[in-house]
Here is the input.
Amino acid sequence: MNATLITGASDGIGKAIAFQFAAKKHNLLLVARNEEKLAALCAALQLKYKITAQYIVADLYKPEAPLFIYEETIKRGISINVLINNAGKGSSGEFYQNDLAGELEIIQLNDSCLVALSHYFLKDMIAKKSGTMINIASMIAFIASPYMAVYAGSKHFVKTFTYALAEECRPYHVKVMLFSPGLTTSNFMNTKENNNEWGKAVTSDSNTQTPEQVAVELMTAFEKKKAFWVSGSKNRFFQKISALLPQRFIAKTMGKQKRKQMGLN
Ligand SMILES: NC(=O)c1ccc[n+]([C@@H]2O[C@H](COP(=O)([O-])OP(=O)(O)OC[C@H]3O[C@@H](n4cnc5c(N)ncnc54)[C@H](OP(=O)(O)O)[C@@H]3O)[C@@H](O)[C@H]2O)c1
Here is the structure.
């Protein structure tokens, strides 16, 4: 059975993407930690769209999780023709004060896990000369962002890694897309790492979309076989402008603005 694998599918953008792909009759393999949410989502998707939806409970902070997922697909006889690396987390605040273990988890989830899953599944796609990988970055992948330093760094990695793989995969007819949402009304900013005064200052003046709006754009970009897409017209405009400016200038301006919002010098 062919299926689309979505990480971080129990909630937020990943869950909305699952609905989009199910509506287009893709069988699904959903990954997250919350089994109750995954089971309920799979049942709802199967009933509504008459597809096969399965899940794997995995904690992607654990370095062994990607291999476990890959081996589980082989055991279940599932061939992944679309891989969507969506699971991610961030943090807001002064880097030196943030919990180091939490900062390293961001790199594990947003980068190391994404690299490992890409490695396992791209090999099979390349052998079959077909398939698509979509990596979810962020608007922050285009700007050095003080007070979200590790998250921004992790998404810059996703960006350059994905650009490079898109070219490496081109001769094998495997599509690789970088998809970048802007601020989205999910639980992302409600985590203990983001739900603080810095998080509010960092996001106070951002344009927002719902997870459903983001997922609709992702589906359109997927169907048009785009290699690059920024979700939301205002975000696309901002991304184009930011590409013209030096990163150090952006960092300086944003740092100043956020300190001002925090009532600091
Ligand atoms: N929301 C935004 O403003 C925004 C903006 C730009 C980019 N993005 C990016 O969009 C992607 C999705 O974010 P979102 O807004 O949908 O976040 P979200 O609402 O917080 O959802 C995160 C998803 O990832 C899963 N997850 C988190 N940690 C995990 C772990 N250790 N192992 C397995 N699964 C894990 C969560 O499920 P469980 O808790 O069940 O594990 C959940 O399904 C992320 O890559 C994020 O960086 C978000």
